[in-house]
Amino acid sequence: MPTNLPAEARHKLAEYQAARTIEEKMEVLRQALSLIPDHKGTEKLRRQLRKRLAELRDELEERRAAKTGGVSVFSVKKEGWAQVAIIGAANSGKSSLLKALTGAPTPVADYPLTTKRPYPGMMIYSGCEIQLIDLPSILTEELAETNLASKSIGIARNSDLLLIVLDASKNPLAQFDSIETLLEEYGITLRKKRYEVEVERTDSGGLRVVVMGEVEGGQEAVKTIATQLGIRSAIIKIVGDITLDQLEEELIRRPEYKKSLIAINKSEINPEQAEAAARELESRGFSVIRASALSHQLEEVKAQIFRSLDMIRVYTRKDGIVSAKPLLLKRGTTVSQLAEKIHREFVETLKYARVWGPSARVQGERVGREHVLQDGDIVEIKA
Ligand SMILES: Nc1nc2c(ncn2[C@@H]2O[C@H](COP(=O)(O)OP(=O)(O)OP(=O)(O)O)[C@@H](O)[C@H]2O)c(=O)[nH]1
Ligand SMILES: [Mg+2]
User: Fold this and answer.
1) What is the pTM of this model?
2) What separation in Å is there between the alpha carbon of 135 and the centre of ligand 2?
3) Full domain range(s) for residue 174
4) How far does residue 39's CA lie from ligand 1's centre (Å)?
């Protein structure tokens, strides 16, 4: 077992999986933490659990505020077709970018930790409304976690894209590494995983392991880890190659993949450093853009945000008239998913659709429910 935990701690973690209410979960986590010995090998797990605890505490606070009719300053109403969360270390220029990209009023100042709550703004790009949310810094200038980090990350978790802002005039790579580490501790990964683990609990029948790929230690090792975590009866499907450390992480707390775009801001102050950092991050497979919130030439930043969302624009047509504004949809959306998005009842009555544009073989082609749409399509739904 990778982290080498005592049995009682393991059992507590298993109980956590089964806990239903927030209070229960918090109690079990507190107990688990007290049972995990304090040494190098358990450091990461302890940090992850403490963060989970912080998030649960935030959730509880929000619920209590909602019950008494209060509105938390930390809730943001989703507007527009997609949400982009702006995150980064203090003073990197997040608020300045929000202002420059959307015109929304948000406090900007030359001292750190100015932003104390989320500020939304609407970015218009080629007819699409995309909500950007400026968030309190998750790290100080010295790269220590701030006390609002869990709240900011909570909002980031629910967004479609993270715009990670680095300060080119300081130490952009160190900032990025600290941000990535902190996000991982909060269960968010910026790297697409090469494997997929699915646990389907069953009432009886013991453990069944289905592997399509290479698992360190083979099926027996998977069963051992699962049993130790209190999973006794389940079908565990693993697709791809995975180490036991990764498997354990998936079972204790599955990291969630988030799309990201890195903006190296203030790049006009130190263009060489900005360029070097950009190249390094690109070589690690990330999308990077050099930016300057002061330059106000942010068309390229807008375009890149739009591309990074990886969404498609689809226009609807009714009685021969094409909608002025497109709908923004996830790549891979089908005709029936589009119908559902327009109106729930539409899905049931949907007969066929006609499509003009990139996904049509002939213009005005008649297609079925499973037809996959492409950017720029015009669709008329026949119900
Ligand atoms: N030279 C230069 N200064 C910038 C740029 N972007 C922001 N600034 C300045 O950097 C300082 C911090 O900007 P903010 O936008 O408040 O930074 P923030 O990331 O929101 O910081 P906090 O919310 O305070 O943690 C301000 O003095 C801005 O004017 C840029 O591209 N170039
Ligand atoms: Mg700010």
Assistant:
1) 0.84
2) 7
3) 82-191+257-309
4) 39
Q: Which of 254, 279, 300 is the last residue of a domain?
A: 254
Nearest ligand to the C-alpha of residue 98?
1
Question: Do the Cβ atoms of 268 and 252 come closer than 8 Å?
Answer: no
| 220-274 tens-digit pLDDT | 999 998 888 888 889 999 999 999 888 988 888 778 899 999 999 999 999 999 9
* Distance in Å, CA 94 to ligand 1 centroid: 7
For residue 360, CA distances in Å to 96, 160, 289, 311 come to: 42, 28, 33, 18
Could you tell me if 359 and 246 lie in one domain? no
Vertex 271: Cα angle to 269 and 275 (nearest 5): 140
Statement to judge: residues 5 and 58 lie in one domain: yes
Residue nearest to atom 3 of ligand 1 (CA): 266
- Average of pLDDT values for 8-24? 84
Q: Is the CB of 244 under 6 A from ligand 1?
A: no
Judge if 128 and 270 occupy the same domain: yes
User: What length does the chain have?
Assistant: 383
294 lines ligand 1 (CB under 6 A): yes
Name the least confident of 150-159, 251-260, 297-306, 313-322.
251-260
Q: What is the pLDDT of residue 2?
A: 53
Q: What does the alpha-carbon distance between residue 71 and residue 320 come to, in Å, rounded to a whole number?
A: 44
pLDDT in tens, 77-106: 888 889 999 999 999 999 999 999 999 988
